[in-house]
Amino acid sequence: MIKKSLAALSAAIFIGTAGWVPAASAAGDPVLDDSIYDTLVDRFFNGSTANDRDVDPADPKAFSGGDFEGLLKKQDYIHSMGFNAVSIGPVFSTDTYDGRRVLDYGTIEDRFGTEEELTGLVGKYHKKDMRLFADFPLGGASANHVWTADHDDWAIDAGDGTVNWDYDNPEVKEALIDAAVSFVKKTGIDGLRLTHFGDADKGFLNDLIKALKSENGDLLVFSDAPSDANFDLIFNEEESSVLRETFSEVDPDSDGLNHTEMTEPPSLLFFDTLEGDRFTAEMVEKRMFPPTRWKIAATALLTLPGVPIMTYGSETAVTGTGQHGNHPNHDFKSDEDLIDHITNVNELRNQSETLRSGKFEMLYNEDGMIVYKRFTDDETWIIALNNTSETQRIDISEEQAGGAGKTLRALFGNDLVRQTENGSYRVVLDRETADMFIVEEDKGLNIPYIIAAILVYTIFLLFIWQVWRKGRQRRTEGSK
Length: 480
What we know:
A hairpin with a 2-residue loop joins strand 14 (359-366) and strand 15 (369-375). This protein is α/β, with parallel strands linked by helices and 480 residues long. The chain folds into three domains: 29-357, TIM Barrel (Alpha-Beta Barrel), CATH 3.20.20.80; 359-441, Sandwich (Immunoglobulin-like), CATH 2.60.40; 450-480. It is built from 16 helices and 21 strands. Residues 1-26 form the signal peptide. The chain crosses the membrane at residues 447-465.
């Protein structure tokens, strides 16, 4: 409690005295403004028992009771971590808790809530400047889907109780496009992730995207697999693999990050998806400490070029393998330090256009010690990630820092790096830590900051003295 109170006081003083404000740079790509929290309705939070039908939270294959009401009740939880967009998975009537085995694109799963509740949820998220996305599964539908009864030539049996649609059939394409556009129109949803589209051709996907954009020009349309279609975000599995390999353990081969760059359209950045094994499981397998790993990984996720998407439970370092292990019920058992760190980095990203859409330059990258720059004409950030087992010292050149007479102010470590006699800026970082430095003009000693720092330690000493004095009084009274 003492540590947390002092940290909060120090942070408040820093904001009031450091003088950093986000640069008033030109507006960037609005797609880059999103910081996405990815979840499944059923696995997030049970906000109302009125719609609990065939619910068994103890069965990993059964419905658990999560609903739209739960997403509303936990809106502040997501918002407080700095996420301004939430992806909630498929919401159509379904055979399975994850929503993938769709029964009818025209109806909402009643275990999740009603269409009116979903529309209301979108509106209430908008009031906090948050966007809501949903999945539209283009394949893997239930064999009992309503279309299969009337159109025996539309579906291809997948042999596991599911069907895939015959994309060579013009009627199928038209029906899927109509269903997706109708869903967007009725609900006001802000984004659609097209999933399980298998071998659907690029032309069909582009027709679908075009129709969706005609209904809502601001709609974000992305995917869960690589595609050459005109999606707003690039799904880059290779980049995700590099991120996992780099941050799942200390002292890694981090050369893969040397290929990091701004892309057009932007890349979707992620460590986890709602498929496969959790990133945390990989850390555990390598005998690493997940909260420490996640702090460094989250800093990279939220500051590298692209649009970050974080799977629910990552903020509590949840582990799990396989489809059902990957979808645990969110128990909200918080690791406060990790959540605080995600919140801090996310808030900085939200405040700074530079961190979202500024240029990118790798300054140093060797065996897990990674330093890069995000910059515009008006603002420069240097992000240092010491993903090694030793303290590291890195010299940033005058040119890399943006010129002479600068200071690099750390936002987490309270360090102030000034130019040395040889013209460089030396950054020192403890093992397995990350920090972000805002580059400022060197204005000499920051007297208000020094006074504030003295005040923090004075208050701390007074607090310790009061605790000691009261303890002494209790001991004296107890001996009488």
